[in-house]
Amino acid sequence: MSAVHASAAPTLAPYRLPRQRSAWSAPGGLSTGVFLLSAQFPGQGHAEALERTVSAAIAAEQAGLDSVWLAEHHFVPYGVCPDAATLAALLLGRTRRVRIGTAVSVLPTHHPVRLGEQAALLHLTSGGRFTLGVGRGGPWVDLAVFGGGAEAYEQGFPESLDLLLRWLRSSRVGASGPRYSFPEVAVVPRATEQPLRQQRTGRQHAYADAPTPVPAGPGSRTAGGPPVVVACTSPGTVRLAAQRGLPMLLGMHSGDEDKAEMVTAYRKAALEAGRTPEQVARVEAEHVAAGVAQIGDTVAEARAELLRSMPGFFQYGLGAHRTVDGRERRMRDPEEYTELLCDLHAVGTPRHCVDRLTATAERTGIRRFALLVEGSGDRAGTVGNIARLGAEVLPQLPQD
User: CATH number of 31-396: 3.20.20.30, 3.40.1000.20, 1.10.3720.10, 3.20.20.70?
Assistant: First the structure.
């Protein structure tokens, strides 16, 4: 998941928070999915990394997991998927039940209307199984290549987010902002329509025999457009998400204490923006925590697997980032960062992983997880890790 940084939030956008309904029958259930970077480990090709991602998504559905989250990066081996929405389209066609989300689509490198069109298309044709995660990204050379420049990163995220949301919730949209200005046009297709597969008309259609998709979460909706989440790693984006009534996607680099502080800051900002406690509670139930999951017969075995493969990947992948304007950047020590992830997340025996996920839920209130499962760098190892997550961890977690 690309990093997001502080930005000033403007006046509230002129649309109302959609009515939402609970999709869970019990407040204690945990929703568990996989987070796929499409990571290119040293010695691997791009096709190999992408094929592992496709295999992992299919394995996640077979294992009974709820969701698959796809990362998006440009020009670096840290992740070789340059368009998470495009890959989501492929995987929605390859699966029948599991939800597919972007974690994230980087708004400064996308035109919001174009991304909104893609999201509406995936929402309507998948029976409502698509979730759009968006983020601000980083100050990378991507901004020079795609024409937004540093200003799109530094100042443009609120304008882009508001335009995207209006596109997903309206029938006609125009713009008159500093970055986007165009006359009013019709929204086609409209994400506000209910997906055909979920219309109860009695007619037979292409999706008539398809199983019901996994709900997005307690505040999920199908009519009214795809769920939208915002990647947050700074106070500015936390405030922005809260003011817009959107749930947060929190990164795997932060621990439970940091996540709990961000949830508290979100609640404060949302209430200050005029949301009712009931509205805030519904949206908070959709927050997502990114993490790592590596299952082993012992804790030492699981940690050793990640310490064998991930430091070299971090050195290779993160070291390739270039800034848009030559600003200084610092990279974490790869060994120390891998050790930190092992300490923070579900890395160990199935019982250890259950306890770790449950503890995070209790400490932060977050009950939806997107777990990095490809830390071994190996296709068979990734698929096997997912199978163990579904068979040995999932049944022990609190269920709906």
Answer: 3.20.20.30
